[in-house]
Amino acid sequence: MTTRGVLPRRLLGTAVGLLADRLLGEPPAALHPVAGFGRVMTSLEHAVYADDRRAGLAYAAVGVGAGALVGVAAGSTAATVAVTSSGRMLRRTARAVGAALTCGDVDTARALLPALVGRDPQALDAPGIAAATVESVAENTVDAVVAPALFGAVLGAPGAAAHRAVNTLDAMVGHPDAHYGRFGWAGARLDDVVAYVPARVTALLVCAARPARAGDVVTAVRRDAPAHPSPNAGVAEPAFAAALGVELGGPTQYPTHLEQRPRLGTGPRPAVGDIERAARLADQVEWLLLALLLAAALLSARASRAPDPTAARVAAGQPSKGS
């Protein structure tokens, strides 16, 4: 495989990986590489934890390095993207929450919610659960679909695996509480960095999926994102809110603290039916991303097959430019 052929191979592998996740879903938890990574990093955390940023930085560096090495060992962009993306599970879990609320089973909806969000489900009524679910679909479309695809397309299997390592570390230790505030700081900030471009690509894909509301999406992101504590959820959530015509955000109760978050978008608070609408929007975003990946793979493959003018001149005995 020549250097010129690497990019189309990565783009096609990324598209195949997303399709595999759509068709097959997650591996069993006992066999899931990400779950195994989490268990290893939990053991390492117990061994090295200190209420100190330097300890957390070393912990994060080991985790990201291990993730990248796993990607190198895997050697397949398609397989790595398949196990590091989880759009199917995200949408299925959101729909399960919506189905429980539709049946009036708030207790089951609360039991399902921790798979989507870190906030305290016992503090939420049915409308609060609906809003939390829509917010999770928006934020996790970045983390579980767009980001692994972009890292796979640009950096191959090591990039997709390293991204998932960062995202997992943020979920494990990136909490602004007394225990993890310093130790988890590096993981949380690194997750902000790696999701920065994917979050904005997600907002553009939302505009493409809902062209009639694209202006509202741009307005909401520009107006509401700066006040959000996350530089990336603060982009994805108002984009989804504006596309769906609802209001997200507001006070958010976590098990250890209450966050006063800004209101995102304009309109009524989400109802149960908005969960399905959010899941459909996330699904359409992924299909658009797949189409773009396949188109880019085709174009880059054609470009890689085109004759290299410099090589042709050298073969003909002519000096290359700049010699």
Per-chain topology:
Elements: H1 6-24, H2 33-48, H3 53-74, H4 77-84, H5 87-102, H6 106-112, H7 126-173, H8 185-194, H9 196-209, H10 214-224, H11 233-244, E1 248-253, E2 258-264, H12 273-305, H13 309-315
Antiparallel strand pairs: 1-2
Helix pairs in contact: 1-4, 1-7, 1-12, 2-3, 2-7, 3-7, 4-7, 5-6, 5-7, 5-12, 7-8, 7-9, 7-11, 7-12, 9-10, 9-11, 9-12, 10-11
Helix percentage: 55-70%
User: What is the string of helix and strand elements?
Assistant: HHHHHHHHHHHEEHH
Rounded Rg: 21 Å
Total DSSP helices: 13
Mean pLDDT: 91
Tally of strands: 2
Low-confidence stretches: none
Word description of this protein:
The chain has 323 residues and is mostly helical. Helix content is 69%, strand content 4%. The protein has helices spanning 6-24, 33-48, 53-74, 77-84, 87-102, 106-112, 126-173, 185-194, 196-209, 214-224, 233-244, 273-305, 309-315; strands at residues 248-253, 258-264. Strand 1 and strand 2 form a beta hairpin. Helix 5 (87-102) runs antiparallel to helix 7 (126-173) and helix 5 (87-102) packs antiparallel against helix 12. It starts with 5 loop residues before the first helix and ends in an 8-residue tail after the last helix.
